[in-house]
Amino acid sequence: MKDSVTLKVNNLKTGFQTEKGLVTAVNGVSFTINPGQTLGLVGESGSGKSVTAQSILRLLDENQTKYSGEVTFNADNILNFSERQMRKIRGNNISMIFQDSMSSLNPVYTVGDQIIEVIRLHQKASKKEAYKKAIKILEKTGIPDPEKRMNAYPHQLSGGLCQRIMIAIALSCNPDFLIADEPTTALDVTIQMQILDLMEDLRNEFNMGILLITHDLGVVAEVCTHVIVMYLGEIVEEGPVEKIFNKPLHPYTKGLLESIPQIDGDRKQMLPTIKGRVPSLHDVPRGCNFAARCPFSTSKCETENPVIETEDDSHKVRCFYYKDILEGRITNDSEQPAR
Predict the structure, then answer these.
(1) Which residues contact 150 (CB under 8 A, 6 or more apart)?
(2) Cα–Cα distance for residue pair 43/84, rounded to 1 Å
(3) Is the pLDDT of residue 32 over 60?
(4) SS3 content of the chain, % helix, strand, coil (to 5)
(5) Angle between helix 159-171 and 189-206 (nearest 10)
(6) Per-domain residue ranges of the chain
(7) For residues 177 and 95, is the Cβ–Cβ distance under 8 A?
(8) CATH topology of domain 7-224
(9) pTM score, two decimals?
(10) Given this model, what pLDDT does residue 337 score?
(11) Residue 26 and residue 12 in contact, taking contact as beta carbons nearer than 8 Å
(12) Across all residues in the chain, what is the average pLDDT?
């Protein structure tokens, strides 16, 4: 793996052709993942996180999907690659862990067969060589008695072990980048931490770049260096984890952070919530996507969509009034004159 390799997403747009016309699920998303960096992608269900990840590897039905923008890997825009070229990238240079390991693994093949298949496909290894490498990668992922597990079927393993198997498959070809879509979903807290620690150890060992998709801000605080907050297909805030957690600028980010239970909080007090829900892609607001749910929304927000602004070199936000909110010049439900 080359230290100079980066994965750059520039103005990515992903639309789906439906009976009601084209709907845009990802709208102008841009970010860069460097080797050894873990980038967190957070937001509610329906924010476009998983579609962004699947778009990078072009896993969506291309008869119904329209891509635009750039996904640059090794100076090539892989959105322009043929399906044959993409098959060489997937699992070899860029791997993905899906959120439901039990449905992602093939139930009629043993764990060993599934790992060996990936190694032989991408690295042209003999069956014997692939078997040895599969054993080694299972050992690295902390799976006990790896030779025995090679002969096991997915239904014979726990959820935590299946998730480790998925990680082993994803890492079997030493990829440059790993996309992890909710990798700790449905796992208990202890197993979650083990999986996250494992990913961090492997990132450090192989100098991988990781895109971690999650709705759990606690996970982001634990393992990520940089975070992107998405809402209805757009980035609303991005920056280093410390800045996002200590000085959130967007009302949506503030709402997400305020909804996290605090260990020393008042147990009798109701947790703050963000009113409303994420709109349908068929009913995207005319102005700011978050305006209908924002306690600081004004008439300007309902008619104009703000662009991303840079607060400093590494902290960006999409909001007309973030400075006024930050400095207390605008409060909840007050009307700010249009500028």
Answers:
(1) 110, 111, 112, 115, 131, 134, 135, 138
(2) 33
(3) yes
(4) 35, 20, 40
(5) 10
(6) 7-224, 247-326
(7) yes
(8) Rossmann fold (3.40.50)
(9) 0.90
(10) 44
(11) yes
(12) 89
What amino acid is encoded at 272 in this protein?
P
Give the DSSP letter string of 20-85: TEEEEEEEEEEEEE-TT-EEEEE--TTSSHHHHHHHHTT-S-TTTEEEEEEEEETTEEGGG--HHH
pLDDT tens, position by position, 152-161: 999 999 888 8
Query: Are 17 and 64 a contacting pair, CB within 8 Å?
Result: yes
Sole residue written with tokens 């007309």? 320
Q: What is the mean pLDDT of residues 259-279?
A: 79
User: Which phi and psi (to 5°) does residue 222 adopt?
Assistant: -80, -40
Distance CA 327, CA 309 (A): 17
Please name the residues in contact with 334: beta carbons below 8 A apart, sequence gap of 6 or more.
296
Rg (CA), the chain: 21
Structure tokens at 250: 């967007």
Terminal alpha carbon distance of the chain? 50
Q: In what order do the strands lie in the sheet with 309-310?
A: 94-97, 177-181, 209-213, 38-42, 226-231, 234-240, 316-317, 309-310
- Tokens standing for residue 288: 């700011």
Q: What are the structure tokens assigned to 271, written together? A: 């947790």
Tokens of 186: 């449905």
More confident residue, 228 or 20: 228
Please give the structure tokens belonging to residue 155.
């239904």
